[in-house]
């Protein structure tokens, strides 16, 4: 099945109300070898194997003419946590993104510092399991080089994204991906949408773009990125706000 067919199947399944569609389950996550490989600590072997799979292939990139007139906002639209309200009031001048956990050199960056880094721009389609899609243009630095700068410890296996919104007032939004997917060539930390600073609805001041994954994986309102060896002790232990409520973790498309 081609990627676009797969995607329209996904959209139809979601639109038909197929709750918690088993996104990506038919793929890598279901293969026993994949689980063994994820558990392996041999990064070199892991990298070679990943190169042989499709996980590093690019999501389709569209042209300017394909950009949706307005990019829908979904989930949290306007965070009410006191921390976010204060940061927003000062136009995010006091906001910083922290990178820590299993790294040799934890550090943090202001929005201005992030904007000064080399950036990637990509026009991609966002697919939400609730049954809608939208094409938008995203800009920001690649995540991989930032992790390299922090010096990822060999024990690290997952990248956790911490957010500033408590969706529905029941726990802060968070997400996680395998370390390997942080190095996908389209995994960026986006500060611009359609050539303008990210609107609050779409995750200001910064959100992650994971173009081979479903919408819920792409955490908005980022404040901290943590490298960990296990997801078990974090919040509900399933690796994300929605995963803790039954969604599939890998979320690949
Ligand atoms: N922090 C945070 N990130 C989030 C969400 C959220 O509610 N809070 N919703 C997720 C879902 S389900 C989707 S589809 C996308 C929506 O992104 P958008 O608001 O830019 O459309 O963000 C994802 N990331
Ligand atoms: Mo979503």
Key words describing this protein structure:
single chain, 253 residues, alpha+beta, five-stranded mixed beta sheet, four-stranded antiparallel beta sheet, 11 strands, 22% helix, globular, disordered N terminus, binds the ligand Nc1nc2c(c(=O)[nH]1)N[C@H]1C(S)=C(S)[C@@H](COP(=O)(O)O)O[C@H]1N2, binds molybdenum atom
Overview of this protein structure:
- The longest helix has 13 residues, at 3-15.
- The strands form three sheets. The chain has a five-stranded mixed β-sheet with strand order 2-1-11-5-6. A four-stranded antiparallel β-sheet has the order 3-4-8-9. A two-stranded antiparallel ribbon has the order 7-10.
- It has seven helices and eleven strands.
- Helix content is 22%, strand content 22%.
- A hairpin with a 2-residue loop joins strand 8 (192-193) and strand 9 (196-197).
- The termini are close together.
- With 253 residues, the chain is α+β, with helices and mostly antiparallel strands.
- The structure holds the ligand Nc1nc2c(c(=O)[nH]1)N[C@H]1C(S)=C(S)[C@@H](COP(=O)(O)O)O[C@H]1N2 and molybdenum atom.
């Amino acid at each position: 099945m081609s990627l676009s067919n797969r995607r329209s199947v996904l959209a139809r399944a979601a639109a038909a109300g197929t709750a918690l569609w088993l996104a990506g389950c038919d793929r890598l996550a279901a293969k026993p070898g994949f689980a063994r490989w994820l558990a392996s600590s041999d990064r070199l072997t892991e990298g070679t194997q990943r190169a042989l799979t499709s996980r590093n292939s690019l999501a389709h990139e569209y042209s300017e003419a394909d950009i949706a007139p307005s990019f829908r906002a979904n989930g949290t639209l306007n965070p009410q946590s006191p921390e976010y309200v204060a940061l927003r009031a000062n136009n995010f001048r006091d906001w910083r993104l922290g990178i820590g956990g299993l790294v040799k050199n934890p550090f943090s960056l202001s929005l201005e510092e992030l904007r000064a880094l080399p950036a990637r721009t990509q026009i991609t389609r966002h697919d939400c399991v609730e049954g809608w899609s939208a094409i938008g243009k995203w800009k920001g630095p690649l995540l991989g080089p930032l992790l390299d700068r922090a010096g990822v410890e060999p024990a690290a296996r997952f990248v956790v994204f911490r957010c500033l919104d408590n969706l529905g007032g029941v726990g802060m939004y968070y997400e996680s991906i395998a370390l390997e997917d942080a190095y996908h060539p389209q995994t960026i930390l986006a500060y611009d949408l359609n050539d303008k600073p990210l609107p609050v609805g779409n995750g200001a001041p910064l959100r992650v773009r994971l173009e081979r994954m479903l919408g819920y994986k792409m955490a908005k309102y980022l404040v901290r990125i943590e490298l960990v060896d296990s997801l078990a002790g974090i919040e509900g232990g399933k690796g994300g706000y929605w995963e803790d409520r039954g969604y599939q973790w890998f979320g690949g498309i």
